[in-house]
Design goal:
Largest sheet of chain B: 5 strands, parallel
Organism (chain B): Phytohabitans rumicis
Helix content of chain A: 25-40%
InterPro entries (chain B): Alpha-ketoacid_DH_E1_comp, DH_E1, PdhA/BkdA, THDP-binding
Number of strands of chain A: 14
Strand order of the largest sheet of chain A: 3-2-4-5-7-6-12
GO biological process, one term (chain B): branched-chain amino acid catabolic process
Keywords (chain B): Oxidoreductase, Pyruvate, Thiamine pyrophosphate
Number of domains of chain B: 2
Largest interface: A-B, 45 and 43 residues
Cofactor (chain B): thiamine diphosphate
CATH class of the largest domain in chain B: Alpha Beta
Oligomer: heterodimer
Chain lengths: 325, 375
Amino acid sequence: MMAEKLTIGKALNAGLRRALESDPKVLIMGEDVGKLGGVFRITDGLQKDFGDDRVMDTPLAESGIIGTAIGLAIRGYRPVCEIQFDGFVYPAYDQIVSQVAKMYYRSQGKVKVPMVIRIPFGGGIGAVEHHSESPEAYFAHTAGLKVVACSSPQDAYTMIQQAITSDDPIVFFEPKRRYHEKGEVDPDLTYPLHASRRVRPGTDATVLAYGPMVRTALDAATAAAEDGRELEVFDLRTLSPLDLAPIYESVRRTGRCVMVHEAPSNVGLGAEIAARITEECFYSLEAPVLRVTGYDTPYPAARLEEEFLPDLDRVLDAVDRTFRW
Amino acid sequence: MAKQAAGEPAPDFVQLLTPDGERIERATGADGVEYSVDFTDEEYRGLYRDLVVIRKLDAEATALQRQGELGIWASLLGQEAAQVGSGRALRTQDMAFPTYREHGVLYCRGIDPILPLSLFRGVDQGAWDPNEVRVNMYTIVIGAQTLHATGYAMGITKDGKVGGDDGEAVLCYFGDGATSQGDVNEAFIWASVFHSPIVFFCQNNQYAISEPIEKQTRIPLYRRADGFGFPGLRVDGNDVLATYAVTRTALDNARHGQGPTLIEAYTYRMGAHTTTDDPTRYRIASEVEAWQAKDPIARVRAFVEKQQIADAAFFDEVDEQAKREALHLRERVLAMPDPQPLTLFDNVYPHGSPEIDAQRERFAEYLDSFEGSAH
């Protein structure tokens, strides 16, 4: 396969297809993943080509999807579970945090559950409630799970395959409002799964984002450059474990850092990252690490979500504030 | 339908050995199947031996808890027949998914009894190797394991290991309280829809901690299976012969591709839920006395005595074996070392984590900072 331009959605589909081809133990399971191809069509055509024994439409119960996947994983399979929307993952929460996350630990390494839990997350699509949430901190807080978020077609293609081949159980967040954004995908590109990535170099301030907010952060950097301010933008990519060493290096150079995420700020990933940067880069900081996040409210009705979600202007405002310190 | 309450006579269950030790040759289950067993004298004696030994080991564990050697213990007292009958029905290739009370099932699988005790002592979290012993780890969250068992059974089908005598089956344990959990109901749905080789084995011991069965259900539990589309039946869970017969048949059906079965083993927890609760607060003495008259061990003893297939020397020898195993267990529990501090960080992730590594390193440095430290 040559490098080609794909949307994030198509890249995920291609990555899943390649995983199914590579290992007969890989299974896809979830609600509507078969004939319909998933509500976002991420699994489009896979059941047709791999059969309903490999791409399984399940009963409509999230705890059942995750719980039976655990049993399949114990049996030697590598299930990839689809949760239709972020706000629907909570019925499976116990199975994920109490069972998936802890099997390996409490068996002292004798039982692996090499499974992937795909969750389309975040807002900006004008949906009704429970369809636009950012639950990543719940999972990043749980030892035993690894949590990643893709933001580009290349990462979507590469990271989903890495997650499936990994023996670590992985919660895989997909930026649903970016599913249709296109980018170059090189199928032969290799790089580590758990590594943050500098997606734009800069000298004046460091901006951190993941998932759907990476595009927002890049747009803000483009706008800032027009005003003569060079922002260095990082895509965290891995939310647990965090890969902060390259970010410490950046903050020590720039002296300023703004963390952007859609999830509410209270006890969110931004709080953890700000604390760690403060511990590691205290003498280099010209201003406190600032957070640009969703507010500490339930996700609002669709006609208010543009007020709730961080946008280019709120990121630039935070950058301005770090310079006023 | 009249509601069923703890202490009421159990209706329409499969029974092959009465509380007085009378053998019933055949009994028909609610599933319409006729059940019987045909054991040799040696096998009858073996079942008696199992029952006595696991009761003694269980009593020893309770004593160890009372003496502060175990953090907590979930006694199986009263449920010996349900566990031995079902445990002995497993074939080597089958897989069992227990709760946290199936010490007797583990014993039947040949698993060292020290292994569950290390969990309750707090030395580890139940770290036997399920792939080796064919019993999954204990699960504390009520009903969660029923989904794991179902998924595992789905894997058996995918592997093509159903459809013959050499097929594999799953035996999934849970209690009456667990039937109220969503996971158990979801497991029933999955097992039914995917026609999985699984036997759901509900030990209805009448209480979920302090809550009697009428707080969980308005109908006999085995009848739940009807609504999910597979057979359900109730067995006298204090009758080791009947429990063996129905479980063996259900497992054989599963391995031959006939799908799931729900077995409700109608029994009684004679002790507390765990050593932390006080059953005198929530149940009356006369109820306990009524169940004492249905004791699972006394009836087997009465039977083998009547049949003259065991003599006094045999009973003495079994008691001696039980005492010996209990003493051995006690000695090993007392000798069990605490884990090393740094093992705290072991096995969090198959591929490791730099964050965990960093925390381990910092903790090691901290431990080293104490004079004379040799962790």
